[in-house]
Automatic annotation (TrEMBL):
Gene Ontology MF terms: carbohydrate binding; DNA binding
InterPro entries tied to this protein: NagB/RpiA_transferase-like (IPR037171), SorC_transcr_regulators (IPR051054), Sugar-bd_dom_put (IPR007324), WH-like_DNA-bd_sf (IPR036388)
Organism: Amycolatopsis camponoti
Protein known as: Transcriptional regulator
Positions of the Sugar-binding domain: 84-332
Pfam families per record: Sugar-bind
Family stated for the protein in its record: Belongs to the SorC transcriptional regulatory family.
Annotated keywords: DNA-binding, Transcription, Transcription regulation
Length: 342
């Protein structure tokens, strides 16, 4: 046991000033020494307590004081611009395998800049987790397109388009081009859908689904091991499908309680799948097929989409969420108000 360094340790008060200016040199040296033992040398609180002749509870208070006073600062140097605290809180609140929340500085940036950062983060994750044995599905979305533009390396594996293309989109944004970009990097087989996202009626939809190329792609849905999708909110400018419908159909679906959309599949605020007439005139993976994918990475960001992200996470379909602080903060408030079932 060490003999009373820096004065009488037994006389140490855990109520010392919260500022370093209020601590004497001997107090500061004592706190720094204890903190060094714990953080640098990896000693346990019990070992430190034995060395200094105090209780382990007093060691815990000393470590708290060292942090609170600024004498000791714990910093994390992550290889990406991620807010560690928010990421951990969102992951825990919704029982996800992983959550990546862009750092708070992005809240002041234009939406297209945030979208590019979300895409880059998703690309980095996909590059790390995809294996040659995987079958990867991609939905159409601007954020998913941004991800594909940022991918630099990927194992050779099949890439499957999950839904058709919104009419009026330029070629660079079409999901057919998105799939082509990824397969040009990976060298794997491409399964595109050469058809529109929303069709005029059920008969036309069924006719297109029977076409050989589209039927082959739909046949791959049951083989998917990973999927990257975007979460849309059922409001103007926040959902590809919403923007593709006429006003009457938008209002009818909203009246049914639609809150969120993923790959043309709708969810209410509780995360339940909505069965509407829309399901019969879209070229897209079914809700059941999407739910069966073992690993679903969802991209959903910006404050207007917070309620939609909350709804989709409650469905239990998503394993990994990539978002920003602007969505994460209200998302945590929604989870606190109505805790999700994990």
């Amino acid at each position: 046991m060490l003999r009373q360094p820096f004065g009488q340790i037994s006389g140490y008060s855990a109520q010392m000033s919260a500022s370093r200016k209020g601590a004497s040199l001997s107090e500061a040296m004592l706190l720094a020494t204890v903190a060094r033992r714990f953080y640098v040398q990896g000693r346990s609180k019990l070992e430190i307590a034995d060395e200094f002749g105090v209780s382990r509870f007093k060691v815990a208070r000393m470590l708290d004081t060292a942090r609170d006073s600024g004498l000791v600062r714990v910093e994390f140097s992550l290889p990406a611009p991620v807010d560690l605290a928010l990421s951990d809180e969102v992951r825990s609140a919704y029982g996800l395998q992983q959550a990546l929340v862009l750092e708070r500085s992005t809240e002041r940036e234009p939406r297209e800049v945030v979208r590019a950062k979300i895409g880059t983060l998703a690309a980095r994750l996909l590059e790390e987790i995809v294996r040659p044995s995987d079958v990867v599905g991609l939905s159409w979305a601007r954020s998913v397109n941004a991800m594909t533009e940022a991918i630099r390396a990927l194992p050779r594996c099949p890439i499957v388009q999950l839904c058709g293309v919104q009419a009026g989109m330029d070629m660079r944004g079409r999901s057919v081009e998105t799939v082509s970009r990824v397969t040009s990097v990976s060298g794997g087989d491409a399964y595109p859908i050469f058809g529109p996202l929303v069709l005029p009626d059920r008969r036309t939809t069924e006719t297109l689904r029977r076409q050989p190329g589209i039927a082959e792609t739909f046949g791959q849905f049951r083989n998917l091991t990973k999927a990257v999708v975007s979460i849309g909110a059922w409001q103007p400018g926040e959902s590809t499908v919403y923007d593709a419908l006429d006003e009457a159909e938008r209002a009818a679906i909203a009246a049914r309680g639609a809150t969120a959309e993923v790959a043309a599949r709708l969810f209410d605020a509780s995360g339940n799948a909505l069965s509407t007439g829309l399901a019969h005139h879209v070229l897209a993976i079914s809700h059941e097929e999407l739910t069966a994918v073992p690993e679903v990475i969802a991209l959903g960001y910006s404050r207007p989409k917070a309620a939609a992200v909350d709804a989709v996470l409650r469905s239990g379909m998503v394993t990994t969420l990539i978002t920003d602080a602007a969505a994460a903060v209200p998302l945590l408030a929604l989870a606190a108000k109505n805790p999700p079932h994990k």
